[in-house]
């Protein structure tokens, strides 16, 4: 039984809200999993920007 089906059969507002929180928690969890998968995938990961060496401009007199 899916959470949506359980929500349609919830008898009280509190039950319905509790089930809704489970859905939100699940979505957030999935986003975290996708995010970490993208971070560790060498093909998808952006190369980290290297800081440019600071050079002194030539003085113009």
Task: Describe the fold and architecture.
The chain has 2 helices and no strands. It has 61 residues and is an all-alpha fold. The chain has a domain at 3-40. The longest helix is centred in the middle third of the chain and has 28 residues, at 13-40. It is rod-shaped, with a radius of gyration of 25 Å.
Write a short abstract of this structure:
By secondary structure, the chain is mainly alpha-helical.
| Overall shape | rod-shaped
> Would you tell me the overall average pLDDT?
63
Low-confidence residue ranges = 29-38
Q: How many angstroms does the end-to-end distance come to?
A: 80 Å
Number of strands: 0
What's the story with the biggest beta sheet? none
> What is the count of DSSP helices, taking H or I runs of 4+ residues?
2
H/E element string?
Answer: HH
Structural category is mainly alpha
- Our estimate of the beta-strand percent is under 5%
Quickly list its features:
single chain, 61 residues, mainly alpha, 2 helices, 56% helix
Secondary structure layout plus pairing:
Elements: H1 3-8, H2 13-40
């Amino acid at each position: 039984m899916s959470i949506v089906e359980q929500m349609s059969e919830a008898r009280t507002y509190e039950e319905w809200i509790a089930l809704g929180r489970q859905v939100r928690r699940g979505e957030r969890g999935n986003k975290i999993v996708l995010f970490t998968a993208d971070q560790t995938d060498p093909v998808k990961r952006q190369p980290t920007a290297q800081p440019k060496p600071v050079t002194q401009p030539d003085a113009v007199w």
